Amino acid sequence: MTNDSPVSVRRDGDLAWVTIDNPPVNATSTAVRAGLERAVAEVQGARVAILTCAGKTFVAGGDMSEFDAPPVEPHLPDVVQQIEDSEVPFVAVMQGNVLGGGFEIAMGCAWRIAARGTRFGLPEVNVGLIPGAGGTQRAPRLIGMAAAIDMAAGGQMLDADALQALGGLDQVVDGDLEEAAHAFVADLPQRPEKVSERVAAPLSAGELEAKRAAVLKRARGQASPGLNIEALQWAYETFAIGQPRERARHLELRKSAESRALRHAFFAEREVARPKATEGTAPRDISRVAVVGGGLMGAGIATASLSGGLEVVLIERDAQAASEARDRVSGLIDGAVKRGKLTADKAAEQMARFTATADYGKAAGVDLAVEAVFEDLEVKRAVFRQLADAVSEEAILGTNTSYIDPQEIFAGIANPSRCLGLHFFSPAHVMKLLEIVPLPDTSAEVLATGFAFGKRLRKVSVLAGICDGFIGNRMLAEYRRVAEYMLADGALPQDVDAAARAIGFPMGPFELQDLTGLQIAWANRKRQAARRDPAQRYVTISDQLCEMGRLGQRSGKGWYDYAEGDRRPQPSADVEQVILGYAQAQGIARKTLDQDEIATRILSVLANEGARIVEEGIAESDAAVDMVQIHGYAFPRWRGGPMQAARETGWTVVAETMRKLEAESPGSWVLSQRAATAG
Length: 679
Known about the structure:
- By secondary structure, the chain is of the alpha/beta class.
- The chain is built from 28 helices and 19 strands.
């Protein structure tokens, strides 16, 4: 074994210890595969080989940096087969995460033991793939078809206890893993039948179809979940037939647009977590946080902060509001317990770190204070005046504004270097996106602390510059604008929403407005009216609906009609009459817009505006735009975000579509430099 190999072999009497040491996650790189192949030869003559990994985790997947290049020998399926066929049986001794190729290697071993709490998965579906080293062929044989579908097609993780209950582990270890391995191999049971030679018990047709329907519903257009189910069915053939088919499909999918998009999203999440402006800067420690405002947003921020291990003081306007806010946070935590996301003991511990009060003085000593009150400049300014009196001049101040320039909010606050925007998305305890908006005076240390705070809350934090709506809501405004233009020009709400769902959004723009309430966007349009470009086309259909009291689901009517107690949207004859009446009054000759045309317009407008945002420096990169859209606006991850989608279809399509839109609505669209030079 060469000294620089990430795989080493150590002999201990009649035992051979094989150790993978390839930080940070022991991925199955070319060097690891080559090392394992050599190890299989080197352990010959031992009674048993014990396969372990250095560090905190077993093999946690493949090296995705290799996926864009042709595969290099030795190939993982061949290495796994060599382990399974070895005359010296292997015991996989596992901890941390055992994912993808790691689980495939483990299934090639004769026995498997793991520390309690170890997690297992076949997450290739999350990057648009099926397993490529026998995962879909061995998993049904080892743990049954139903569990294999959940893992490979649904991306479900199983802990060690659950995997053992399914027959996938021989032992779950509470104490020292190495000692347990010694004890296990001291009196080995008879070598079991190879997993690849076992028979997979079939699901009934009804069970299979129920599983398939559930998976495809969650997939929302992503192809790889269904392809995983198809590949899993090959396990009913012999392994010699199914495994080569799996490998061929895996390599084929590596070249697919879906896999490229999902891999882009994977790397983009890591890219945006390290903005250039924070390079070389250490964040402050944060342990105590104040949140001002106990409505849905403030309660969500408080809950997320408690989940992140922080002490939280929530401040409301009076004692009654504070009591209601406490109940709101308690209800969110209780809901997590009921859903099995949190233990009762952990919930009690979180509530012990929580205080709701009407006294700003209770914020004394906090490291960070976040304002989450109504989107009104003067209300927000008043909050920060009171906070500035209560907290130290070094305490970081964050505003959760969605649109307002943070510079205006913080005007006159001492030590402006501590101020920044922290734009959470509702519900804040669930939504992963956090837009972090520095002011010109914000220090690098404060900005780095904002990103550390977001990481602690398990958010995907994205640096955003100052403009109306920052990254996400600025793009949302353009999305809504093109949608309303299409209403005026020939579509109906249900047509646009169906096209959005076909793109992969969970719901369309009009369904979403009905869910959140039309009054929010209406108030924002009124706020922007004075500075709206008079040359830009302005469609008043939404304003008319608001004036009619059609404000969404809560009012029982919006873009759609709703039966009492039923949230399913029904097309509205009244709304159609408003749309047709508007078009007639404007002299518009409506034309048919099919689903593909509607979808192309939506995607092109999002990509064009995203490019403008990057060109203006509001976002650092296309990756930042894509992460905002995926994590804040439910853009389908399998498309990678609007910028990745535009790369796949070609910017000439965006350019052609934007020129068509400009011709239909002169003076209403600004082409990005990228679109302007593409066609």
